[in-house]
Structure prediction request, 239 residues.
Amino acid sequence: MSPAGASAPAVRILLVEDEESFIDALSVGLSREGFDVDVARDGAEGLAHFATRAPDLVLLDLMLPKVNGIDVCRAIRASSDVPIIVVSAKGEEVDAVLLLELGADDYVTKPYRLRELVARMRAVLRRREHAVPWGEDEPLRQGPFRLDIDAHRCFVGDREVKLRKKEFALLQLLLENPGRVLTRDVLIDRVWGSDYVGDTKTLDVHIKRLRALLEDDPKSPRYITTVRGVGYRFELSPA
Ligand code: CA
Prediction:
């Protein structure tokens, strides 16, 4: 029986992982957090379980026997927008970028703390729950931030912050995807498109300026965080 009681059905997690030590630790840890954990030990089994058990969230290891994580992600995305969090070993960043472009929601590198993983899982689940279509004529709100898209105005609480065009577009994209890792390629493509020429530092310069304008401590950003080797993420973590 789930400790949460009979009223709310437990969130079902499909864990696709081939390392027994991780399987054991996660099965125990996530069950304790109230999740219902189903384990698949290779990619083929992962896809089979996905098809028959309709999980609420998939935790997907990258290096898997039979069908690798990239192909599992691609196959799931062909038919479903279930949240997928990739759990990758160190040094697999290139594959993780590809996975995010294929539609994975987030990315966690081993070794990680269970608390961090659970926080990411809850953020992704919350985002899906509240994924209401947002009309262009309404302000876009996330935490203390508000963007009036038509008027091209940005507010932090009651304070207005003046942003240049690309900064505004970059912040809009981040705010539209809270908790989601956006790869450098996605950010560059969506904000600059073919305007992005030459210097690969342009994105970082814009991020730096947004942080300077929006963060209490730009050197240790709370909202716009770096995902090393991958991209950036807008976070609204509980304080
Ligand atoms: Ca593995």
